[in-house]
Amino acid sequence: MPLTPLARAWLTVATRILDARLRLAPLAGGTSTTMLAVAEGSAPPRFALRLLDNAEWLAEEPDLLEHEVAALTRAGTTGLPVPEVVAADPGGDAFGPAALLTTFLPGRVELCPDEPERWTWLLASTLARVHSVSAPGFPWRYRSWVKAGNVRVPGWTVRPRLWEAAAEAYSTHGPRLTTAGETTFVHRDYHPLNLLFTGTGAALAVSAVVDWVNACSGPAAADVSHCRMNLALLEGTEAADAFLRAYAAEVGGADYDPLWDLDAVFDMAAPVPAYYAPWGAFGAPDPGEAVVRERVEALLGRALGRL
Questions:
Q1: Where are the alpha helices (DSSP H) in the chain?
Q2: Residues 125-135: tens digit of each pLDDT
Q3: What's the CATH code of the domain at 72?
Q4: Which residues of the chain carry a pLDDT beneath 70?
Q5: Which of 214, 237, 247 lies closest to 295 in space, CA to CA?
Q6: Residue 44: which domain range?
Q7: Cβ distance 36 to 82 under 8 Å?
Q8: Would you give the DSSP letter of residue 275?
Q9: How far does CA 38 lie from the centroid of its chain?
Q10: What CA–CA distance (Å, rounded) separates 307 from 303?
């Protein structure tokens, strides 16, 4: 990616890498902002650079950079491998958009593990460690991402009564989710693409937890449901349920309200569920539109059956 002389000068000061040795490369998987790996010559990357160039997102959340810096600082107290803040350009003086430079953590996205049970346990145990950190005074608070217009029967379904029941249940009881249970530190966008791994088989291990820009104080179940929805879309409801069982075992039992699954469905799978393109970039095959829709309705049906 070409950079202006001012941007390169900023990077040389922040990274202590000589201008002639600076090497930048796009990071796979980023969709909401531009993510770049920063290396010295042919050596492995040492830094990650986020350019906050999503105008629509910034219009909704003008404090994004401040939020991410605070979130990464709090995330550092989890004991998990998380990026460390190196430097920030909040005014966008060097790059145009605001920019944040962090350490680069090695590892790979793993969506097709050799030992799915271990992978699921790692997802769950890592999230339990996130939730072990309290967040008193953390200024960013949980809010649902569900758009009111999505809480309805979608035009594509052949099971309208299922969706009618879900919409009625969510409209009636959904508000209790914002006040139910204790609040803790939540990642808020916890799913397999935001974990990096090393090793294979029984030696599979988490090497990094990334993308903390949405972290907030809120109910732990918000992270659980978001990850469950991702797993349901990727693999089906059995994978989502296996994750919930593993998480409950890690935290000593979890009284999971199935309304959270309705929240996740109306957030991520309405009005039309879709295969998330970055999954394909990391080896997860697209099951096709019909299967994705079946998986969503299976999760919906299970949630309603547990209410």
A1: 5-15, 55-60, 64-75, 116-131, 160-173, 221-234, 237-250, 259-268, 277-281, 289-306
A2: 999 999 999 88
A3: 3.30.200
A4: 1, 29-31, 179-181
A5: 237
A6: 5-103
A7: no
A8: -
A9: 22
A10: 6
